[in-house]
Description:
The structure is a single chain. This protein has 4 domains: 1-98; 158-252, no CATH class; 254-343, Serine Threonine Protein Phosphatase 5, Tetratricopeptide repeat (Alpha Horseshoe); 376-462. It has helices at residues 10-16, 21-34, 43-51, 59-68, 82-85, 159-179, 185-201, 207-230, 234-251, 254-270, 274-288, 294-310, 314-328, 345-358, 362-375, 381-397, 401-414, 421-437, 442-457. The protein is mainly alpha-helical and 462 residues long.
Amino acid sequence: MVSTGAVPNLVFRQLRGQRSAGEFAAAVRRAAREIGEQVACDARYIGRVESGEIRCPNYAYERVFLHMFPGASLADLGFSARESVRGRGARVVSEPPPPEPAAPPEPGGSHHTDEESDVLRRVFMMSGTATVAAASLGLGGAPASAARISLPAQRRVGESEVDAVEQAVRRIRVLDDRHGADGLYRQASRPLKAAYELLDAGTTTRRATADRLHAGAGELAISVGWLAHDSGRFGDARSHYAEALATARLAGDAGLEAHAFCNTSFLARDAGRPREAVRAAEAGQRAARTLGSPRLLALLALREAGGRAGLGDRTGCDRAIGRARAAFERGAAGGDPEWMSFFREAELELLEAQCWSALGDWSRAARHGRRAAALQDAHFTRNLALYRAQLTGDLARAGRVEEAAATGHQVLDLLDRVQSSRIRGMVAGAVRVLEARAGGVSAATSFLTRHRESTTSSPSGV
């Protein structure tokens, strides 16, 4: 709920110039990528800044804005000082102060704050007339505080509650990009439960708010499902994806339906159900046809290709990859969903590598795997580990023992920061291949020894 005392940010509006809010938001996202940040900026966010609802941006946006306007301060951009807006009850407040770190900072002395932190400090924020108690999520061994979920007597849901659900989705994705799923899954189920309690018990005064709440709850179910998927809890993931699909169909939300089918296909492939993977990907493509997003169609075609590779259908797989590349080359579009920020050229190469790997064409898989690893932004720590783990296995199976061992060392370098059962499983698979093929190669022996020691010293196994 916007405070009646909100003062429009006319300076920021002037900086936008003749560009639409959507065009300016796209420029913000591009600037973020230039400095290795990830922000989910859209026209609505720009509107909230210009209306004065956001008086001071969070730390990630601050870095992006100062990069876009060199030499300017936040005050020069029309924002209030952070210390002047903290701690007040209105929705025009800034981000809360950064939390104390729950784990040592990464090498190089960097210190994560807010979205960059390895602790999800606040997923649901105290605000509005309907209050969801804040839930702190622990990562890296930090204890998660108990999440109390309270619904008000009037059970009326407004903008602030929907904002909290959407922010939960974004923050979970940021932490997964940096750290992997294992330390997040159990804690992330708490805000999901709260979101569906709001759906079940809440009433809204506006249809648009209800639609956003359905979409936000569905996206949160997919995000939590992905955390279950990546941490090896396939049954839980299947349940969460089905919940998101049901929500999409109840709300008539084609975008959410396409996303749910996309993840269901991915899960089916990983669970050894390739025919289901193909069917889910095809259903997702049908849902996505009217959304105006070639990149989404490209990703769904790659999901189909993965299923066809699992069936041993080389021709069908090759055709699906061809469709995916053609759609991808059409470029980004206004209809691209926010959750697809990970789907860049590096991810396309990785998914194609996985297809050829499933078909037993290890050398071809390794070629695409090298491209994926070279293209991946180091900002996405989890994906960097994933791509290199895939490449390690493909190189090992292709007989490139020394290169496989060198790449495997790079994966192990990242696994102290990335908690993903899926990645650990991929590394273990590569290790089994190298054990049979090492043949006294010193590089391979060194990697195998290091992996064995890290597995022994890690309580969860690496």
